[in-house]
Design a protein that fits this description.
Blueprint (H helix, E strand, L loop, with lengths): L1 E4 L2 E11 L2 E8 L10 H13 L4 E7 L2 H9 L3 E11 L5 E10 L2
Parallel strand pairs: 3-4
Antiparallel strand pairs: 1-2, 2-3, 4-6, 5-6
The structure holds coenzyme A.
Coenzyme A (COA) binds next to strand 3, strand 4 and helix 2.
Length: about 100
């Protein structure tokens, strides 16, 4: 899914399907963040995944307050923390959280 504002692409959201599981990714253009935009495609992705008969959607997020808070608001739970799983832009390693929403 693409979010657009006039001629600009302001966000992207995808769910890759592996059997009964979906893996979610989302990004909103920096200047459009913090306005609640991400909830729109995420709610639609969850609805579509239910209609397609998926059992759960998962997402792995680096230690990112906004993303984790957003997913919790939409009903995701943290299922595990993975230490030092991703290299940050400062070149140090940061923890990741695997989150999941059950759809059944
Ligand atoms: C994570 C991301 C998709 C959120 O999109 P968004 O449209 O900015 O989301 P929202 O405006 O709904 O804000 C998300 C949460 O962060 C909080 N938030 C917003 N601005 C904030 C700020 N300046 N400081 C702290 N928290 C803030 C909101 O209150 C919201 O929490 P809530 O859902 O509990 O109300 C966006 O920041 C982004 O694209 N980040 C980079 C890519 C990424 O990290 N993707 C997720 C991993 S796949």
């Amino acid at each position: 899914m693409l979010l657009v504002s006039g001629p600009r692409v302001t966000g992207i959201c995808h769910v890759d399907i592996y059997g009964k599981e979906g893996i979610l990714g989302i990004a909103i253009l920096e200047s459009f963040q913090g306005r609640g935009l991400a909830k729109v495609p995420l709610r639609y992705a969850i609805k579509l995944a239910k209609e397609l008969g998926l059992e759960r959607i998962r997402s792995v997020d680096i230690d990112n307050y906004r993303a984790i808070s957003l997913y919790k608001t939409l009903g995701f739970n943290i299922i595990r923390r993975i230490n030092n799983c991703s290299r940050s832009f400062r070149n140090s390693f940061v923890d990741c959280y695997e989150m999941e929403i059950k759809l059944l």
